[in-house]
Specification:
This protein has about 160 residues and is of the alpha/beta class. The chain is built from 8 helices and 6 strands; from the N terminus they run αβαβαβααβαβαβα. The N and C termini lie far apart (about 40 Å).
Length: about 160
């Protein structure tokens, strides 16, 4: 059984991060294999593929809907290349969303990314205070290693909104 099999009978959107090998190189053919598996299971439209590797994101994007791909930005890459260069590459390569580590996101960065026509996500959102900050900043999505806390926060927000 694969993770795709687990999610297929649900209405939950599947988010898949394509990782690199231990030597830092991409797994040959991985994006194509994942996209083919998603297509076979009719999960492509409800899946989002993410990676810290631009070429991997682009390879996945070539085999699926453009809205379902996210370029994960490491703090090292952002420092080395600069946010404007990363935005330019994302737009040039047709990547619709960037995701930045939550502790380096602020309103000014989000405004720059949105002004360029890109969506914005956050990763490593693992504490309630970080979740609250990302919600206040209005990110489109965030990833967490603590879904229990995110669900708890969602219940509180849902109760406030009713």
């Amino acid at each position: 059984m694969t993770v795709i099999d687990i999610f297929a009978p649900t209405t939950i959107k599947l988010r898949i991060e394509l990782k690199k090998r231990t030597d830092g190189l991409p797994y040959p053919g991985l994006p194509e294999q994942v996209m083919a598996a998603l297509t076979r299971r009719r999960m492509l439209e409800r899946s989002i593929v993410t990676s810290f590797q631009l070429d991997v994101v682009c390879a996945a994007a070539a085999h699926g809907p453009a809205r379902g791909h996210v370029y994960l930005i490491s703090p090292d890459l952002e420092e080395r290349e600069g946010l404007d260069a990363i935005i330019g590459v994302a737009n040039a390569r047709g990547i619709p969303m960037l995701a930045i580590r939550q502790n380096s996101l602020d309103a000014a960065k989000i405004d720059r990314i949105r002004a360029a026509g890109l969506g914005i996500g956050a990763w490593a959102v693992n504490e309630l205070s970080a979740m609250d900050r990302m919600l206040a900043l209005g990110v489109d999505v965030f990833t967490t290693d603590r879904p229990d806390l995110a669900l708890e926060r969602a219940k509180v927000i849902g109760a406030r909104d009713h």
